[in-house]
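Progress note, sequence design subtask.
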C-alpha cells in the first residue's frame, strides 16, 4: 500500500461514512432535525424512536451501505486486496458517520456503518456478531446492549480472523472499530448500569 492509497482510502471512507443518512431521511420523511430529538444522534435507533419503523429501516440500509461501499471501493478499486487500506477505510467510515463534516461533526455511534464495512471484509464473523447482538436486543429490548456486545464480539472475532489469515491488519481493525463503537456508547453503558436506559419501543417524542 502506498501513502497515496492510504490517504485516498481514508478520504473515501470518511466522506462516504459522513453522509448523514438519518438526517436526510428525517428531513424528507417529516422535515425533522434529528439532532434536536431523542438522543440527538443520527443513527437508525434514534430515527426509530423519533419517526418509526419505516424511516428507521431506510436509515439502517443507508448507514449499512455506506460502510460496505467504502470498503468495497477500496478492496476492488483503490487498493485491491490490501487489508491495511481496507482497515483504514473502515475506521474512517465509522468516524465519518459519528463526526460528519456535513452536520457540524454530529452523527451516530457507528454500529451499522461498522457492520456494513466488516461484512465486506469478513462476512461470516460479522454476521455472527450481528446475530448475537440482535438476539440480545430481542431478549432484553435494549438496543444499546446488543450494539455494545455485538461491537465487542465483532472486534474479538476480527482478531480471530487475523490469526487465521496471519494478517495483523484485521486485528487492528477489530480493536479500533470495535473499541470506537463501544466507547461511543459510554453514556448508554452508564444508563444501563443505572437502570435508566430506554428500551426498544419507547418513543423519544
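Output:
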Amino acid at each position: 500500500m502506498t501513502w497515496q492509497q492510504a490517504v485516498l482510502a481514508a478520504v473515501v471512507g470518511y466522506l462516504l461514512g459522513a453522509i448523514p443518512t438519518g438526517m436526510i431521511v428525517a428531513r424528507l420523511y417529516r422535515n425533522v432535525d434529528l439532532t434536536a430529538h431523542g438522543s440527538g444522534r443520527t443513527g437508525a435507533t434514534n430515527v426509530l424512536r423519533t419517526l418509526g419503523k419505516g424511516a428507521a429501516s431506510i436509515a439502517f440500509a443507508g448507514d449499512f451501505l455506506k460502510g460496505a461501499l467504502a470498503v468495497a471501493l477500496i478492496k476492488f478499486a483503490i487498493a485491491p486486496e490490501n487489508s491495511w487500506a481496507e482497515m483504514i477505510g473502515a475506521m474512517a467510515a465509522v468516524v465519518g458517520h459519528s463526526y460528519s463534516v456535513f452536520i457540524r461533526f454530529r452523527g451516530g455511534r457507528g454500529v451499522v456503518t461498522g457492520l456494513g464495512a466488516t461484512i465486506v471484509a469478513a462476512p461470516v464473523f460479522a454476521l455472527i456478531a450481528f446475530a448475537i447482538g440482535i438476539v440480545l436486543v430481542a431478549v432484553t429490548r435494549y438496543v444499546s446492549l446488543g450494539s455494545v456486545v455485538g461491537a465487542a464480539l465483532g472486534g474479538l472475532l476480527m482478531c480471530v480472523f487475523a490469526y487465521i489469515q496471519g494478517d495483523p491488519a484485521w486485528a487492528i481493525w477489530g480493536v479500533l472499530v470495535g473499541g470506537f463503537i463501544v466507547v461511543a456508547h459510554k453514556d448508554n453503558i452508564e444508563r444501563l448500569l443505572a437502570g435508566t436506559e430506554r428500551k426498544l419501543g419507547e418513543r423519544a417524542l
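The chain has a mean pLDDT of 94. Work on this subtask will continue into the next period as scheduled.
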